[in-house]
């Protein structure tokens, strides 16, 4: 249920954002990291998956798609079919689980990769506001690349796009999301300069993430 509008400053009205759910894709083969389970890697002493979930503390429901792994009590864990069937298969399984787990109707969904250590609630709020009146909003990195797994989507539009591609196994995510009307959002600045779109795909990315984490902690 949306809250009433709040005023920020003398002449500015901040529009409330609707309730939303969160879906984290936390599988994948991580070939460039030797096949390790990426969401379980530690950055600054905290698991990547825990960092991502901390960016959406007010989402309900919260669903993680991937192999069995520790999650907070409120998080539902599911597996795509077949295991390793790719991001759209994981998305499809997650959408089904969201429908089963939702305690109240939601119109928006944060769709996130499980290896983004520097997402924050502020970034998610910027995406939720940016998605207003559109099918969704995604982060854009400084090179202009859309980060489809750092986005907030209109749930109905995303589900329709998934259904329209047929069997989801092996389908690239781009084939789904390019059917949508998306806003492209530059991330709010962080005091430590850590980029919210940084994903830990390889060893260099993990080292860069550790360096940002050390800077944030003052080490």
From TrEMBL:
| Pfam families from the UniProt entry | NTP_transf_3
Provide the MobA-like NTP transferase domain boundaries.
22-159
Task: Please verify whether the record's keywords include Lipid biosynthesis.
Answer: no
Q: What is this protein called?
A: MobA-like NTP transferase domain-containing protein
Q: Which UniProt keywords apply?
A: Transferase
Q: Which InterPro entries does UniProt cross-reference here?
A: MobA-like_NTP_Trfase (IPR025877), Nucleotide-diphossugar_trans (IPR029044)
């Amino acid at each position: 249920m949306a809250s009433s509008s709040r005023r920020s400053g003398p002449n500015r009205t901040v529009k409330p954002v609707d309730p939303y759910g969160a879906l984290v894709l936390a599988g994948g083969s991580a070939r460039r990291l030797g096949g390790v389970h990426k969401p379980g890697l530690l950055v600054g002493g905290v698991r990547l998956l825990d960092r991502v979930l901390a960016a959406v503390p007010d989402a309900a429901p919260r669903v993680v798609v991937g192999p069995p792994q520790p999650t907070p009590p409120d998080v539902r864990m599911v597996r795509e079919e077949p295991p390793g069937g790719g991001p759209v298969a994981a998305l499809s399984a997650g959408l089904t689980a969201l429908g089963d787990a939702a305690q109240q109707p939601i119109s928006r969904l944060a769709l996130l990769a499980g290896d983004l250590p520097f997402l924050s609630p502020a970034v998610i709020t910027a995406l939720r506001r940016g998605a207003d009146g559109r099918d969704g909003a995604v982060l854009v990195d400084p090179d202009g690349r859309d980060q489809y797994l750092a986005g907030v989507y209109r749930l109905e539009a995303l589900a329709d796009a998934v259904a329209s591609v047929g069997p989801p196994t092996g389908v690239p995510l781009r084939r789904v999301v390019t059917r949508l009307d998306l806003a492209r959002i530059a991330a709010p600045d962080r005091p430590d300069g850590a980029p919210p779109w940084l994903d830990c795909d390889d060893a260099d990315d993990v080292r860069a993430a550790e360096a940002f984490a050390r800077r944030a902690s003052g080490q």
